[in-house]
């Protein structure tokens, strides 16, 4: 996936994570300086955390 | 109008003393105390202190010396004209001091970098306007108040502790490209335009809340309309923020980047611009909907992984909202789309209990994004107001994903959905209405699709299949048939259990050899779809490897297109024009090749004909 520069100067590291049918299409949006301060492992961990939170919601038993 | 000049060095400025006032620059003292009809000048060299008690001036000018303005008691100065100081001036009235700008016509304010320390600075004059000539800065606890008139930032920054403009008098904040920066929540509210009657704003309308502490902060915006609404940036702090907590209170762009506190919105509020949440902030769940109401441009929603645990409404005629990242709502919250375009922008939007449409002109654009409806509900996806509801595929393939593990309903409303509708949960998916889809698919199996009897569901592609032991059920909600329609092509399903289903439209509907005919079906073919190969010679060279390959006659294998290698145990090449000599050489490889040649016109004369057969090693004529 692509890293885009948004109109306000922030960057968006767009990513997809998961397997069908539960694929999260997401992006990490922040200032470039913040992004460059992160290690690849930290970036991946942030993406995984996003997915873990999301999958917990959509697969939660319904009331 | 008279001019008054401060003379005699340090002293007190009050309502009666003439000790330090002169009618001329550097002249004798004893002139009358200035009023708001008199210009006041501090133009003497040297360093001295003016202790303010009560002051009234027209123009206030500091042009020389190093003057300290201090206060005694509850000092105040009314300034009816221009205000100008020079660098090096010290303004230190204390937290009880007040500067009151009372002009009734256009005036200017020039501080030359002097920080004005006071308790309250007020702009209050009917018909008055104050244009900043440079940045205007106060101490961090000062409350700057606009009561009446126009505060013209003139594209400069106004920095103050608190800003207040709450009331019913006619007033304007003209930002230009400037901004107001608020430093401290000394009394709770750091921004207060709670009664926004007759308040208008122009320009960039940006307010920066830069407080970085932990004390509670209130930002009360009032009910400004879209044109007058103000953008707020919350740049830091761990405080509890009360913001958009009153019904119909509004803001333009809201940016929480850097904020690590808690946002407690408690009532229906309106956002006319973009919303950026911070990954480290906390959102308090609320019951009332947050409404996005922009009517122009594209607004960006960045949730940074925060779950938005309040209902959302998108309702702005002509507005567009685009997701910058995945947006996930609390499981009990509904999203309602009434007016405007919601662009998923390739991201995943996970609603809570419902996706609703409301009466208005609305569009859902996918651009490869996915709308996830996770609720097990009869209104999980509910197109309640299908009139003027459109969907746009954009770039890529969009999807509406129904993920509940138990029964759920897609209320289509008879609309066209330029996306895939996918049943991605084990629970039966009931589809109501005669809708049109790019495709219908399933991400899990076994599962069920139930259509309202009497409806016609039109698809471009039907992509529903089960697996061995995991059949996908196709049926009607009641004991009557539904219709599935695909205009062309071949439907190739398998492992379905089908009943009360009419398959039509022009396509060949193959249910698959492993599917079950539950009865009352029409149009379904309960066998595997034939495998079709299509070879277009113009695309290059193809090598076909297979036990059985059927190649339809045509121009595909014309020699002029190049060389073809055909490998197979059994190859039949139909007669035709393909083997004409002018098309080149042909190499036939097979266990047995029969060649039949019928001359046209038939051989009737003495002319001698040869049929030449070449192998790699010899040529023979017959």
Can you describe this structure?
- Chain A is an alpha+beta fold and 63 residues long.
- Chain A has one domain (3-58).
- Chain A is 38% helix and 33% strand.
- Chain A has helices spanning 32-36, 40-58, and strands at 3-5, 11-19, 22-30.
- Chain A has a three-stranded antiparallel beta sheet with strand order 1-2-3.
- Chain A starts with a strand and ends in a 5-residue tail after the last helix.
- Chain B has 622 residues and is an all-beta fold.
- Chain B has a domain at 533-622.
- In chain B, 0% of the residues lie in helices and 44% in strands.
- The model of chain B is unreliable at 546-565 and 567-578 (pLDDT under 50).
- Chains A and B meet through β3 and α2 of A and loops of B.
Key phrases:
heterodimer; A: 63 residues; alpha+beta; 38% helix; elongated; B: 622 residues; mainly beta; 45-stranded mixed sheet; ten-stranded parallel sheet
Name the overall outline of chain B: elongated
pLDDT < 50 stretches of chain A: none
Rg for CA atoms of chain A: 14 Å
Helix proportion range of chain B: under 10%
User: How much is the average pLDDT of chain B?
Assistant: 89
Write the layout of secondary structure elements.
The complex is a heterodimer of chains A (63) and B (622).
Chain A: E1 3-5, E2 11-19, E3 22-30, H1 32-36, H2 40-58
Antiparallel strand pairs in A: 1-2, 2-3
Chain B: E1 3-6, E2 11-13, E3 21-22, E4 39-42, E5 47-57, E6 60-62, E7 66-79, E8 83-84, E9 90-92, E10 98-101, E11 106-110, E12 115-117, E13 120-132, E14 136-138, E15 143-152, E16 157-160, E17 162-164, E18 171-174, E19 179-182, E20 189-192, E21 199-202, E22 206-209, E23 217-220, E24 231-234, E25 240-243, E26 249-251, E27 254-255, E28 262-264, E29 269-271, E30 275-276, E31 282-283, E32 290-292, E33 298-302, E34 307-308, E35 312-323, E36 327-329, E37 334-343, E38 348-350, E39 354-357, E40 362-365, E41 370-373, E42 381-382, E43 389-392, E44 399-402, E45 408-411, E46 416-423, E47 429-432, E48 436-442, E49 447-451, E50 456-463, E51 472-476, E52 482-486, E53 490-492, E54 496-498, E55 501-504, E56 508-510, E57 516-517, E58 524-525, E59 543-545, E60 565-567, E61 612-614, E62 619-621
Parallel strand pairs in B: 1-4, 2-5, 4-6, 5-7, 6-8, 7-9, 7-10, 8-11, 9-12, 10-13, 11-13, 12-14, 13-15, 14-16, 15-17, 15-18, 16-19, 17-20, 18-21, 19-22, 20-23, 22-24, 23-25, 24-27, 25-28, 26-29, 27-30, 28-31, 29-32, 30-33, 32-35, 33-35, 34-36, 35-37, 36-38, 37-39, 37-40, 38-41, 39-42, 40-43, ...
Antiparallel strand pairs in B: 1-3, 61-62
């Amino acid at each position: 996936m692509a890293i885009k520069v948004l109109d306000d100067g922030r960057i968006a590291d767009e990513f997809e994570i998961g397997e069908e049918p539960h694929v999260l299409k997401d992006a990490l949006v922040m200032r470039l300086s913040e992004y460059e301060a992160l290690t690849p492992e930290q970036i991946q961990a942030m993406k995984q955390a996003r997915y873990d939170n999301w999958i917990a919601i959509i697969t939660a038993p319904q009331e | 109008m008279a001019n008054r000049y401060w003379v005699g060095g340090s002293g007190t400025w009050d309502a009666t003393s003439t000790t330090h006032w002169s009618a001329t620059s550097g002249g004798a003292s004893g002139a009358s105390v200035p009023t708001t009809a008199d210009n006041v000048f501090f133009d003497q060299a040297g360093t001295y202190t003016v202790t303010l008690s009560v002051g009234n001036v027209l123009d206030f000018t500091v042009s020389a010396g190093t003057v300290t303005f201090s206060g005694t008691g509850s000092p105040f100065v009314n300034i009816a004209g221009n205000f100008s100081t020079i660098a090096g001036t010290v303004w230190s009235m204390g937290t009880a001091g007040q500067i009151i700008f009372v002009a009734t016509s256009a005036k200017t304010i020039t501080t030359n970098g002097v920080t004005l320390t006071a308790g309250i600075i007020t702009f209050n004059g009917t018909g008055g306007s104050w244009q900043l000539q440079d940045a205007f800065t106060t101490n961090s606890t000062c409350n700057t108040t606009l009561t009446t008139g126009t505060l013209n930032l003139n594209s400069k920054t106004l920095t103050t502790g608190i800003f207040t403009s709450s009331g019913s008098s006619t007033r304007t904040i003209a930002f230009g490209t400037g901004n107001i920066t608020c430093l401290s929540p000394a009394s709770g509210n750091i921004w207060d335009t709670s009664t926004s009657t007759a308040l208008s704003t122009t320009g960039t309308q940006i307010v920066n809340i830069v407080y970085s502490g932990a004390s509670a902060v209130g930002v009360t915006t009032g009910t400004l309309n879209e044109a007058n609404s103000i953008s707020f940036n919350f740049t830091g702090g761990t405080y509890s923020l009360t913001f958009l907590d009153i019904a119909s209170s509004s803001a333009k762009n809201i940016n929480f980047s850097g904020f690590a506190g808690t946002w407690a919105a408690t009532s229906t509020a309106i956002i006319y611009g973009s919303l950026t949440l911070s990954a480290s902030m906390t959102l308090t769940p609320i019951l009332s909907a947050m409404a996005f109401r922009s009517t122009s441009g594209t607004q960006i929603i960045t949730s940074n992984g925060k779950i938005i645990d309040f209902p959302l409404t998108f309702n702005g005629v002509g507005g567009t909202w685009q997701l910058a990242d995945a947006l996930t709502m609390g499981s009990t919250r509904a999203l309602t789309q009434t007016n405007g375009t919601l662009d998923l922008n390739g991201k995943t939007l996970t609603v809570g209990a419902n996706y609703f449409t409301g009466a208005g002109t609305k569009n859902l654009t996918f651009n490869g994004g996915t709308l996830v409806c996770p609720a097990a509900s009869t209104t999980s996806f509910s197109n309640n107001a299908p009139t003027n509801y459109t969907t746009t595929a954009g770039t890529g393939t969009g999807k509406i994903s129904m993920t509940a593990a138990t029964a759920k309903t897609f209320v289509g409303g008879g609309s066209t959905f330029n996306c895939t509708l996918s049943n991605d949960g084990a629970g039966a998916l009931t589809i109501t209405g005669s809708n049109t889809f790019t495709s219908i698919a399933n991400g899990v199996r076994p599962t069920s699709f139930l259509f309202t009897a009497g409806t016609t569901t039109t698809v471009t592609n039907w992509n529903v299949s089960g697996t061995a032991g995991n059949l996908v059920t196709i049926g009607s909600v009641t004991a009557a048939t539904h219709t599935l329609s695909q205009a062309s092509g071949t439907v190739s399903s398998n492992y379905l259990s089908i009943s009360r289903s009419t398959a039509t439209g022009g396509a060949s509907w193959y249910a698959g050899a492993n599917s079950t005919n539950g009865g009352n079906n029409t149009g379904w073919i309960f066998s595997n779809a034939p495998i079709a190969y299509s070879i277009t010679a113009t695309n290059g060279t193809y090598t076909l490897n297979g036990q059985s390959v059927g190649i339809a006659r045509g121009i595909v294998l014309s020699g002029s297109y190049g060389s073809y290698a055909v490998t197979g145990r059994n190859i039949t090449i139909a007669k035709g024009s393909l083997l004409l000599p002018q098309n080149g050489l042909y190499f036939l490889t097979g266990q047995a090749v029969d060649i039949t040649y019928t001359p046209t016109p038939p051989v009737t004369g003495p002319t001698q004909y040869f049929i030449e057969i070449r192998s790699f090693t010899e040529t023979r004529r017959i």
